[in-house]
Amino acid sequence: MKNIWSFFMGTLLLVSKGSKAYYIWVGTLLTIAAFGIMGYIYQLDQGLVVTAMKDQVSWGFYISNFTFLVGVAAAAVLLIIPAYVYHWKPIKEIAVLGELLAISAICMCLMFVTADLGRPERFWHLIPKVGLLNFPQSLLSWDVVVLNIYLFLNLTIAGYILYETYYKRTPNKNFLTPLLLLSIPAAISIHTVTAFLYNGLGARPFWNASILAPRFLASAFCSGPAFMILIFLLIRNYTKFKIKDEAIHKIAELIAYAMFVNLLLFGAEVFKEYYTDSVHLAPLKYLLQGLHGHSALVPWIWTALIFNVTAFFIFLIPESRKNPLTLVLGCIMIFAGVYIEKGMGLVIPGFIPDVLHEIYEYTPTGIEIIISMGIWSLGLLIFTMLLRVGIPILNGDFHVADDGVGSHIGDQLFLVGRQVKDVEDDEKLE
Amino acid sequence: MADHKECKHSPVEITRRQALQGLVAGLGVLALPASDASASVWEAFFQKHFRELSKEELAKTLARMGSEYSDEFGKEITVKATPAIEGVRYGYGLDLSRCVGCRRCVYACVEENNQSHDPQIHWIRVVQLDKEKGTALEYAEHYYNPELVPEKGHFYMPIQCQQCDNPPCTKVCPVQATWPEKDGIVVVDYNWCIGCRYCMAACPYGARHFNWAKGKLPAENMNTDTHYLGNRPRPKGVVEKCTFCIQRTREQPGRYPACEEICPVGARKFGNLLDPDGEMRYLIENKRVFILKEELNTQPKFYYFYAT
User: What per-residue string of b and e applies to A396-411 under the rule 16 or more CB within 10 Å gives b?
Assistant: First the structure.
């Protein structure tokens, strides 16, 4: 207990230290978060009328972001499988970072759902025994359960590894391995359950397609890893942490396969609806072509499709996925592409046309965007803090001091100038 | 062991709830001035689910709400919780050959059920359909607004909660804040709903409406005879819907729903489906009846028919 306390105090001291760049970054995130919180207070006071949502389109930007971020969280598993099932060393070294990303993404998911609630103060109605969780009937209650289990698992795994490393001990495999193996089905389940949440509604033909859950998983295995590659590149360029090229290239290769499946499933869906040409075509038509002159999503979805297809080829061809420039370009395209496709592109057409075939076009209001940016900032802040602690520990720059009580902080700066040279040197050595 | 089992249930729950109460009340002291109003706010906050309230708790809750609403609207408002009548399942009939699309039902409903005037909430949506195209909703006109109805070549279809026997909306609610009652009416506990709007995504009839803001209702329009599960004033951030005028139809002697009563052409029918000699059974057995979106197996108790 005493150890945990001094570890905790040590981390507090650690996150308060950093270079100028670190302070600027954290300060920026805090500023945006402050605007987000102010926006949220305004929304709490006025009600959700400050959003562009209406009875016709009753979920919007918040739930779109939530859906996308569940995918990002689930993607950590793409690192865990090669690292811990196949014991592939280059990825094993960075798997903890994937778990830290999962923790941050789940926190953002929970914040986005809370922002969407009409009565957030009644969240306790969801707690089993205290409130009345409608389990197992409601898929939303399943989502509450699996998201929290997944959050708990990742907190435990990453926390345990970092804690043991801090005290210069080797993590106990008998404790860790079962949890790691459990986190694989847990990651798949959070995305499957989130897909089922939409999938099970007969009222909404756009979602009521059995291909939805596989599509969710495929796109999650694109967006999450793409985001991680970007983070890895930043980390190895601007911190002392080293990440091997082969790890990044392997992840990029996996993204190519996932994107192929994603595009295939989307194509299957498009074929089925267009060839059948039933009433159920309307939402897809709204998305891809526009319906009765309403076409707000059309330019977005085509951008997403072009991004996804281009990125697929970038990651498919070994030369371009190994080229640093096209690699970054591909990651950004996938991140943006899936953000559109799995966010607004999935949620909004479920409501357009609505169940009585009325069309209300939804575009998020400024408040919705400010609150969402605030949540993203808070999420990135959580991620930054976790990395601020995790990376020095993994580097051996943050560990218990020789007296066994205090902590040794070897990395005072965290974010430093470009470290590219080091990495290139390493490559030459190999 | 037996002793342990007996006392296991309630004490644990009470302590948890009390712990939570203590925590939030502690925070509340910091946030809110201590006054009678805030005491009532906390009572509402910790209120149990409607179906978990004991008789005494229910009576206390109804009294608290009554006095709150009376203060708010400056006139005596009663809140009741009349239970379902044994041996009754309500059904609704709508004669499409008679409906002229005047929307009197829409506004009678607002008047009776205390819907917000701003933002405007309507529990009934009347759509104008093309006689050539039939009941296909893709061709529905929602905001028709001519000088005179009915318009040539058109017919009209009012749509409201279909009070399904297999309701997709109640199934998805994560906190059991909405459920079908014994008499078949699907209700919402406005004090338990967390406002996630999953039910609105699940409803195939657009029957559920959200309080996007605190509803505005002029005091003179406030119907003072209210039911906990029906037309009492709704807080912001919760879902509401048609309850077949639960505050009228559950009384003995009962009254017809406001929409049925106002209809100038007699297009609307209402009654007990379990009564073999009732009007509902007669029209189901003798008229050409259909239900909306039958393929979804929601099993509505709202029957559209053509009498002529």
Answer: ebbbbeeeeeebeeeb
The answer, yes or no, to whether residue A427 has pLDDT greater than 80, is no
Residue in B closest to A278 by C-alpha: B138
B11 pLDDT tier (thresholds 50, 70, 90): very low
**Sign, Cα dihedral of B172, B178, B180, B185:** negative
Q: Does A137 touch chain B (CB under 8 A)?
A: yes
The runs of H, that is alpha helices, within A317-411 are 318-322, 324-339, 345-347, 366-395
Q: Give the residue-averaged pLDDT of B147-151.
A: 95
Inter-chain touch A55–B206, beta carbons under 8 Å? yes
Separation CA B297–CA B293 (nearest Å): 8
Nearest-neighbour CA in chain A from B275: distance (Å): 31
Please give the structure tokens belonging to residue A397. 């720059």
Residue A288: both structure tokens together: 């891809």
With beta carbons under 8 A apart, name residues in chain B contacting A355.
203-206
Nearest to A47 among B12, B236, B239 (CB): B236
Place of tokens 């306790």: A124
Q: Is A365 on the interface with B (CB under 8 A)?
A: no
- Please indicate whether, in this complex, the C-beta atoms of A357 and B201 are within 8 angstroms of each other: no
CB A300 within 8 A of CB A344: yes
* pLDDT band at residue A380 using 50, 70 and 90 as cut-offs: very high
Prediction ipTM score: 0.92
Quick check: A125 and B192 CB within 8 A? yes
* Beta carbons within 8 Å of A317's beta carbon, 6+ residues apart: none
Section B198-227 average pLDDT: 97
- Tell me the two tokens of residue B62: 């109804």
Mean pLDDT of A24-52: 97
pLDDT of residue A165: 93
Q: What is the pLDDT of residues A163-184, one digit of tens each?
A: 999 999 999 999 998 999 899 9
| Among A residues 288-327, those touching chain B with beta carbons less than 8 Å apart | none
Distances (CA, A) of B17 to A96, A335, B20, B45, B175: 37, 43, 5, 12, 16
Asked if B140 is an interface residue toward chain A (Cβ–Cβ < 8 A), one would say yes
Closest-CA residue in chain A for B52?
Answer: A132
Q: Hey, CA dihedral for A322, A324, A327, A331, is it positive or negative?
A: positive
> Pick from A134, A202, A282: which is nearest to B176 by CB?
A134
Q: Which of residues 229-288 of B touch A (CB under 8 A)?
A: 235-239
Express as a percent the part of chain B with pLDDT over 90. Answer: 84
Q: Are A79 and A228 in contact (CB under 8 A)?
A: yes
Closest CA to A232 of A391, A381, A83: A391
Count interface pairs A-B at CB distance under 8 A: 149
Helix (H, G, I), strand (E, B) or coil at A368: helix
- Give the strand pairing for B225-227 and B209-210: unpaired
The answer to whether the CB atoms of B172 and A117 lie below 8 A apart is: no
For residues A203 and B204, the answer to whether their CB atoms sit within 8 Å is: yes
Contact between chains at A130 and B16 (C-beta distance less than 8 A): yes
- Judged against a pLDDT cut of 70, whether residue B22 lies above it is answered with no
3-state secondary structure of B80: strand
pTM: 0.92
pLDDT at A428: 41
